[in-house]
Design goal:
Length: about 260
């Protein structure tokens, strides 16, 4: 047993590093595949379609969603499965001490998942506007930082106008982004309070169990705390996947139509 424990703890750092490397490789490969599909989709567009401002706007939004959301989904999906399996095994281990407590811990992740679903709906409304502001801000900043347009603006003495346009778009993008974050934070905070109360109830069920001995209480408390951490990780990683859905939908709708 001691040898196995030593191997587990000794290999922990190597396993974590391997998991991090795998996550980075997946992120880069998913981005590669998505950007390739986006390039092919644009290559199949007709000259008339390419003159459409709406199509160009959708293409730029899809490109931005790849960098910001789509490419990071693979690691989060894998982490969600890992966290769910960890939570499942911990809850099975907890069940002999208190079945109601185990069920309550399992249900405690539902409010958080519901909150992230609401956050996804909020982001679905705010993402297009924020994306548009970011695109214009990037364009204005490029005019000020690339040699040729920057020198032309300086010669004409109009660089300050471009700077004002960039500042306005940067501010609008930041305001839109912060507004979405604040609205989502209220829902996640409320869900966290509900989950905390449910987890406190799980501890209370274990402590008030008439058949619980001191040893059982100690082991059960450790199992409950471990179960709390596992279900919290599962709820968070799944929540990230859920909240990224609007941006992913924008990309998929563009390349598939």
């Amino acid at each position: 047993v001691l040898v196995v424990a030593a191997l587990v703890f000794g290999l922990n750092r190597a396993v974590n590093q391997l998991a991090m490397t795998t996550s980075q490789v997946l992120t880069r490969r998913v981005r590669q595949a998505c950007e390739t599909d986006l390039a092919h989709a644009m290559a199949h567009a007709t000259p008339v379609e390419l003159m459409d401002a709406e199509l160009a706007s959708r293409a730029r939004t899809a490109s931005e969603s790849i960098r910001a959301y789509v490419s990071i989904q693979a690691p989060y999906v894998i982490n969600s499965l890992r966290a769910l399996l960890s939570a499942l095994f911990l809850l099975i281990a907890l069940a002999p001490y208190s079945v109601p407590a185990a069920l309550l811990i399992a249900l405690a992740s539902l409010p958080v998942l519901g909150a992230y679903t609401k956050v996804a709906a909020i982001e679905e409304k705010g993402f297009p506007a924020s994306s548009e502001h970011n695109r214009y801000a990037s364009y204005y900043l490029e005019q000020l930082t690339y040699e040729r347009p920057a020198s032309e603006l300086a010669a004409l003495g109009t660089g300050w106008k471009m700077a004002d346009l960039a500042a306005g778009r940067v501010r609008a993008a930041a305001d839109s982004f912060v507004r979405v974050l604040v609205d989502g934070a209220w829902w996640i905070t409320g869900a966290g309070v509900v989950s905390a109360l449910m987890l406190a109830g799980a501890l209370a069920l274990l402590v008030t169990s008439p058949a619980a001995s001191a040893g059982t209480l100690a082991a059960g408390a450790v199992a409950i705390l471990s179960g709390m951490a596992a279900t919290s990780d599962a709820a968070y990683t799944m929540g990230v996947v859920i909240s990224s859905t609007p941006a992913i939908r924008v990309y998929r709708e563009f390349v598939e139509t």
